């Protein structure tokens, strides 16, 4: 995990460094300790029983530069697979299970989109990418997107009109996948909100064409390495929490039990590095990511974005980020809270109004996917909002 000590020295530019995260008490974070105790208990309850909400989970939350709660519950690996006849997981013996720890890596799924969005806004800040420029200006070979005038902003705000996904996992090779992506027209008029993985796949191609570097290198060199997020990167990640016993008909590919390789079928077909999925990370690393954005783009001596561009990233409707969505943000929503969820059970919320963050990583698809249920995410976010409301003051830096 990146260093959590309080650091307030001089950065490379001669300006004061942004304080690093440090572990401390709820009181030092100006958060109500009883609400945080209940948050931790809730996470354990979510992983208990024969059919839990998740086999395992990690919670990291705090305010200002203080991490006030870190909790791991359940198992990183609980099941050997899924038995469709009994509609239940095949339990491993206790000796073969892998306990969850705070530092267990998770397949982030769609939280990857947030890193792709930051990489794009970094290019906007540098002046090499125009937010309202047409995608065709950078990717003329994507003729259908060019003909429909799809813009960079529309990709980042999921208003390109492209459908949610394509069956790239059924293509014979990369050339066929690229042909399919290039030929895909908008399903609705551009400007219409339609959440789509294709937006971030096009953005990945644009960024790679623009910079001459692959997306994994852009994210590593521009975000994770400067921030000291050493546990964050594209897979494979052998020590990660298990995901799904991935088989048809409930999945889109027959791959068997998955651990440490990307769960998303399209990201898998693309080699594990994709604009919409593929990153692995830990709760403490994602807390650093949240804190960096809450601090205006800086963490310690590192700066990944300027404050004006963080504001651009998080201003409604958000670039890559969802803003003020009560269905997973609970009572934190309403004053500019931003975040995202991931299909594997991941989520994060950062709230500039209260300077708080909440990272919840859970194995909700282990041993197999189920209809999504974000009520536990919203309930935990509401507890954090109550923890702020029950105190006075703000954690000092």
Task: Write a concise synopsis of the structure shown.
The chain has 397 residues and is of the alpha+beta class. It has 13 helices and 17 strands.
List keywords for this structure.
single chain; 397 residues; alpha+beta; Beta-lactamase; Methane Monooxygenase Hydroxylase, Chain G, domain 1; eight-stranded mixed β-sheet; three-stranded antiparallel β-sheet; disordered N terminus
Question: What report would you give on this structure?
Answer:
The protein is α+β, with helices and mostly antiparallel strands and 397 residues long. The protein folds into 2 domains: 28-82 and 96-105 and 233-389, 3-Layer(aba) Sandwich (Beta-lactamase); 118-215, Methane Monooxygenase Hydroxylase, Chain G, domain 1 (Up-down Bundle). The chain is built from 13 helices and 17 strands. Strands 1, 2, 3, 6, 14, 15, 16 and 17 form an 8-stranded mixed sheet that branches. Strands 7-11-8 form a 3-stranded antiparallel sheet. A two-stranded antiparallel ribbon has the order 4-5. α1 runs antiparallel to α13, α2 packs across α7 and α2 crosses α8. The protein is globular, with a radius of gyration of 20 Å. The model is unreliable at 1-15 (pLDDT under 50).
């Amino acid at each position: 995990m990146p260093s959590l000590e309080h650091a307030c020295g001089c950065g490379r530019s001669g300006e004061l460094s942004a304080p690093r995260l440090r572990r401390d008490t709820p009181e030092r974070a100006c958060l109500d300790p009883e609400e945080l105790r209940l948050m931790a208990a809730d996470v354990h309850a979510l992983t208990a029983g024969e059919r839990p909400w998740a086999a395992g989970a990690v919670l990291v939350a705090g305010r200002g530069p203080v991490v006030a709660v870190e909790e791991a519950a359940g198992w990183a690996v609980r099941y050997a697979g899924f038995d469709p006849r009994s509609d239940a997981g095949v339990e491993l013996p206790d000796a073969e299970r892998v306990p969850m720890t705070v530092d267990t890596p998770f397949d982030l799924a769609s939280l990857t989109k947030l890193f792709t969005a930051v990489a794009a806004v970094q290019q906007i800040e540098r002046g090499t990418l125009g937010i309202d420029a047409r995608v065709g200006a950078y990717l003329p070979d994507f003729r259908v997107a060019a003909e429909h005038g799809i813009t960079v902003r529309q990709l980042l705000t999921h208003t390109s009109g492209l459908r949610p996904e394509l069956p790239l996992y059924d293509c014979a090779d990369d050339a066929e996948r690229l042909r399919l992506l290039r030929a895909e027209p908008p399903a609705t008029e551009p400007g219409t909100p339609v959440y789509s993985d294709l937006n971030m796949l096009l953005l990945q191609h644009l960024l790679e064409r623009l910079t001459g570097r692959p997306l994994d290198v852009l994210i590593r060199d521009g975000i994770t390495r400067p921030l000291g997020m050493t546990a964050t990167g594209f897979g494979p990640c052998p020590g990660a929490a298990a995901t799904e016993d991935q088989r048809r008909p409930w999945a889109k590919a027959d791959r068997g039990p998955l651990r440490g390789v990307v769960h998303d079928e399209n990201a898998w077909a693309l080699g594990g590095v994709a604009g919409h999925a593929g990153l692995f990370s830990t709760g403490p690393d994602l807390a650093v990511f949240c804190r960096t954005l809450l601090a205006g783009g800086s963490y310690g001596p590192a700066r990944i974005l300027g404050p004006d561009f963080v504001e651009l990233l998080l201003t409604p409707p958000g670039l890559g980020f969802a803003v003020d969505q009560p269905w997973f943000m609970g009572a934190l929503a309403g004053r500019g809270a931003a975040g995202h969820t991931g299909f594997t059970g991941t989520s994060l919320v950062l709230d500039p109004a209260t300077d708080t963050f909440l990272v919840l990583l859970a194995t909700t698809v282990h041993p197999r996917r189920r209809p999504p249920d974000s009520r536990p995410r919203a309930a935990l976010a509401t507890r954090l909002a109550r923890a702020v409301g029950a105190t006075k003051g703000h954690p000092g830096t």
